[in-house]
Amino acid sequence: MLSDIEIAQACNKKKITEIAQKAGVPEEYLELYGNYKAKVDYKLLNDLKDREDGRLILVTAINPTPAGEGKTTTSVGLADGLRKIGKNSVLALREPSLGPVFGIKGGAAGGGYAQVVPMEDINLHFTGDFHAIGAANNLLAAMLDNHIHQGNSLNIDSRRIIWRRALDMNDRQLRNIVDGLGNRADGVPRQDGFDITVASEVMAVLCLASDISDLKERLARIVVAYTYENKPVTAGDLKAQGAMAALLKDALKPNLVQTLEGTPAFIHGGPFANIAHGCNSVTATRMAMKLGDYAVTEAGFGADLGAEKFLDIKCRMAGLKPSAVVIVATVRALKHHGGVAKADLAKEDLEALKKGLPNLLQHVENIRNVYKLPCVVAINAFPTDTKAELDLIEASCRELGVNVALSEVWAKGSEGGRALAEEVVRICEEKNDFSFAYDVNDPIEKKLEDICRRIYHADGVQLVGSAPKQLQQLKDNGFDSLPICMAKTQYSFSDDPILLGAPEGFTVSVRNLKISAGAGFIVALTGEIMTMPGLPKVPAAEKIDVDENGVITGLF
């Protein structure tokens, strides 16, 4: 059996100019990065403004497990499947972060015969967007510390600096550091730390900005510290937004690549969904909707995180309305939610499957009853799945009137996505009364309560530690009418990663409330969530290599 990277390397890729022509992108808007990658100038959207938008399809999933769910694989296979049945589809995905690529995932460009290519480039550096975001983030950090060193005319309290440096790598050693040591000319000593680039507010800003002017306005609003008088200090106060935007001018343009079967795919931006908003750029999504009759996109992690933020933050800000939602589940992952260890997931276990099914059904309930959107469950098939297990999932969903389709895209590509594509086309015609989970104008406490009760099915929310004081500060500074971006474990509906399935009788603890004024939301940190992950005991990096001919191995 071929590995993912071997399948990708054997693919007969089309020149990106041919893919652009298929997508309807005029050549004058293309900026080529070799033969198989290109950036597309966002100004194309202005020329397409009078064209009707295509249907927007969101792909999300159950809470992730070590068994894997295959959300990106399903997204790619669905886009290919739609073309297989004669529909004009365009894909819009996030860029992978080097952190998980070298940490746990070993790659994030789909799998099997449902991948985006060139897979090695997409996983490693790509067109340099993340490096530009990290550079802009760290330029702001350098200008902030330099301002304090040069006399601190803004009267910044160095103990109340909230802007951290960024690095696109899992590096726990950098979570908490002391810098500015040495001589007087070496800076002012203070506690500091790094976030992973995909958790940086600059990443969120880039993904929500519509053009350079909007980008600069958002960058200028970023709050980096507070004064001794308790007033916020912004990137605009430091006059940093222009230089930051200069670093980001090319990163703002969506990247065009292709699937194994030649479906056009925009891959742009990549905020984590457990600590950021978890969606690809608004610009890429809009391009996909203008160029395709069906635009397939995904949101990170489970529907309680990525889909919630896609719907309550991205759609609210950008004025988007999804036509349908696909919720990806696997037999293996549902058995894990039912208590089966990873080593035993290949064995048939109908009782464990029954215990795990409430996780899936609760996500379905949220999409249908809270957001009032049509949805279909995509069962991402594995070779070890038994007919009895697949039948049990289908029967349980049918009992609740939930649409189900078997997805075999990993093994069969577009042909394996035909049934899912046909079901998606069908439900796009269903009644759609899209609603948000909360009123953005409600008090911050009410918005937090609505998310925790309506989406997580918690008994409530409590503010602990410094959160109550931060809540008052947010209100005092006029930030109380912004959406909420929950930073929460991806493994559970709760803020405790060991509570699998559909837990009950829990309260969510919010320990930190942080303003992301440039992105336009409030980040609420819950549980033990961290903004700089660490590598596992055996990182995927140990298996990644390159030979004398430049051929990369070990990505999967």
Can you lay out the helices and strands and say which pair or pack?
Layout lengths: L3 H7 L5 H8 L6 E3 L5 E3 L3 H4 L7 E7 L9 H14 L4 E5 L4 H6 L6 E2 L2 E4 L1 H5 L5 H21 L6 E6 L3 E3 L9 E3 L10 E3 L1 E3 L4 H8 L3 H10 L1 E5 L4 E3 L6 H8 L6 E5 L4 E4 L14 H10 L2 E5 L4 H16 L5 E6 L1 H7 L12 H21 L4 E6 L6 H13 L3 E5 L1 H4 L5 H10 L16 H12 L4 E4 L3 H10 L7 E4 L19 E10 L4 E6 L18 E2 L5 E2 L3
Parallel strand pairs: 3-16, 3-17, 4-15, 4-16, 8-11, 17-18, 18-19, 20-22, 21-23
Antiparallel strand pairs: 1-2, 2-14, 5-6, 6-14, 7-12, 9-10, 12-13, 14-15, 22-23, 24-25
Characterise the protein shown here:
The chain contains 19 helices and 25 strands. By secondary structure, the protein is α/β, with parallel strands linked by helices. Helix 7 packs antiparallel against helix 10. It is globular.
Q: What kind of oligomer do you see?
A: single chain
Shape: globular
Q: Main beta sheet: strand number and arrangement? A: 12 strands, mixed
Percent in strands? 15-25%
Count, helices: 19
Mean pLDDT: 95
Calculate the terminal CA-CA distance, rounded to whole Å: 13 Å
> Which regions have little confidence, pLDDT < 50, spanning 5+ residues?
none
Helix content: 25-40%
- Rg value: 23 Å
Summed up, what is this model?
55% of the residues are buried. The mean pLDDT is 95.
